[in-house]
Design goal:
Blueprint: H1 5-8, E1 14-17, H2 24-38, E2 42-47, H3 53-66, E3 70-76, H4 79-89, E4 93-96, E5 105-112, E6 116-117, H5 124-137, E7 149-151, H6 155-165, E8 174-179, H7 185-193, E9 198-203, H8 225-234, E10 238-242, E11 249-252, E12 258-259, H9 261-275, E13 281-285, H10 291-298, E14 302-306, H11 310-320, E15 324-326, E16 332-334, H12 343-355, H13 361-366, E17 372-373, E18 377-380, H14 384-396, E19 402-404, E20 409-412, E21 416-422, E22 428-435, H15 438-452
Parallel strand pairs: 2-3, 2-4, 3-7, 8-9, 8-10, 13-14, 13-15
Antiparallel strand pairs: 1-5, 4-5, 5-6, 10-11, 11-12, 15-16, 17-22, 18-22, 19-20, 20-21, 21-22
Helix pairs in contact: 2-3, 2-5, 6-7, 9-10, 9-12
Protein name: Phosphomannomutase/phosphoglucomutase
Family: Belongs to the phosphohexose mutase family.
Cofactor: Mg(2+)
Length: 454
């Protein structure tokens, strides 16, 4: 198919509707292009539970093998399990998933050996260029010696690696409700938690890429409703929700109340710093809570603030040698996991912290959740640049605030801050605000929205 690559090759991955925007013939070209750009003699592939995933992954493998590359297929896996395989085997990798997108979508997340990210500035542009050329001129000639395609199961090794990083064996028993959203958490969670002091209550563990119960996107509060109710009904200690490819994890406490990803970031940061003798750099993006850098400093660490997005986080982790990084979107990155993101490892840290003391989760996280946040509020605008300039103009002359433009516009005062960022893919401005109390946050939020929406 002559696909419009500008529509499916995004900043960090390939993503689009199957078969309308891309199909197995195009996946085969992507496999050949990735093999050439990665410059490797071998690579590893994995895929999620979407109906189109096995065929796309196999086509990609064929394309790479035709170019002489030895392909190891690990089959059904979470995205962080693919990162594990890339790191442990020292191979470039490709994961077939569209994460939390609806069933008709699919995509490819690619990485170099050691789970190093592939994005527009690190190989994806070259891959797109090759695929475009081959769409016009025909597939590249096969190598003199084609590669082979073999299978390998990495689930047990992945689970053992995670458990080696967080010790839960001496924990008190915990009743844990997990909502896998019919995504890959249903595949990985039972193996990772096997043998631990956990009474697991599974929800929607059946692998089903049509998502019959709810979208596998826990960032939308509507998709946490079932988990919150089940935690309360079971009298559970904690609830965990994973997105479709299970690389993100969201937490709810024993009351069924969502725990802010910033609080989880602060909690895990404190634990990782303690494990590293109270020293280390912790990365956080600029719309995580003020709580995060405060806790990092109190724990002896050095906070480092970055733009939003996994490529920025991973680049900064590599540059600074950071031991951990967290984002407001529940992506958690670990030095001991090749700087890649793994929601499962963050979940183990939360379980260890909870089970290592006697109080409920709500009390435990209170020390890490010190401010009132608005959450992310999207506004559709006709002209992102003009509306952002209007916000800058509205606050630029004030003595009580500072402005910075690391990512969009951040306005900071003594007891509040807000950030406005343009979406890369939609005509939206995204607002996040935080303050020391609810009334101040509401006032700041509403003032900023009034300017954004004109």
């Amino acid at each position: 198919m002559a696909a419009d690559l500008s529509q499916i090759v995004k900043a960090y991955d390939v993503r689009g509707v199957v078969p309308d925007q891309w199909d197995e013939s195009l996946a085969e070209l992507f496999g050949a292009a990735f093999a050439q750009v990665a410059g490797a003699s071998a690579l590893v592939t994995g895929h999620d539970m979407r109906p189109s995933s096995p065929g796309l992954a196999r086509a990609f493998a064929r394309g790479a093998a035709r170019r002489g590359v030895e392909v190891t297929e690990i089959g059904l896996c979470s995205t962080d399990q693919l990162y594990y395989a890339s790191g442990a085997l020292g191979l470039p990798g490709a994961m077939f998933t569209a994460s939390h997108n609806p069933a008709q979508y699919n995509g490819i997340k690619m990485c170099r050996a050691g789970a190093a990210p592939v994005g527009q500035d690190s190989g994806l542009a070259e891959i797109r260029e090759l695929v475009g050329k081959w769409q016009e001129s025909g597939a590249p000639d096969p190598a003199e010696q084609p590669g082979t395609i073999s299978r390998r199961d990495t689930l047990d090794d992945y689970a053992a690696h995670l458990r080696s990083l967080v010790d839960l064996t001496s924990n008190r028993p915990l009743k844990v409700v997990v909502d896998a959203g019919n995504g890959m958490g249903g595949h990985t969670v039972p193996t990772v938690l096997a043998g631990l002091p956990v009474d697991l209550v599974p929800m929607y563990f059946e692998l089903d890429g049509t998502f019959p119960n709810h979208e596998a996107n826990p960032l939308d509060p509507a998709n946490l409703v079932d988990l919150r109710g089940r935690v309360r009904a079971e009298g559970a200690d904690i609830g965990l929700a994973f997105d479709g490819d299970a690389d993100r994890c969201f937490v709810v406490d024993e009351r069924g109340e969502p725990v802010s990803p910033s609080a989880v970031t602060a909690l895990v940061a404190a634990r990782e710093l303690a494990r590293n003798g109270g020293k280390g750099v912790i990365i956080h993006n600029l719309i995580t809570s003020w709580s995060v850098p405060e806790v990092v400093r109190e724990s002896g660490g050095t906070p480092a603030r970055t733009r939003v997005g996994h490529s920025f986080i991973k680049a900064e982790m590599a540059r600074t040698g950071a031991i951990f990084g967290g984002e407001h979107s529940a992506h958690y990155y670990f030095k001991d996991f090749w700087n890649a993101d793994t929601g499962m490892l963050a979940a183990l840290h939360v379980l260890a912290a909870l089970g290592g003391q006697d109080g409920p989760l709500s009390s435990l996280v209170a020390q890490y959740d010190r401010y009132v946040g608005s959450g992310e509020i999207n506004s559709t605008v006709d002209d992102q640049t003009a509306r952002l300039a209007a916000v800058r103009s509205a606050y630029a002359g004030r003595d009580d605030v500072t402005l910075d433009e690391l990512d969009g516009l951040t306005v900071t005062a003594a007891d509040w801050w807000f950030n406005v960022r343009p979406s890369n893919t939609e005509p939206l401005l995204r607002l996040n605000a935080e303050a020391r109390d609810e009334a101040t946050m509401a006032r700041v939020r509403d003032e900023a929205l009034a300017v954004i929406r004109g």
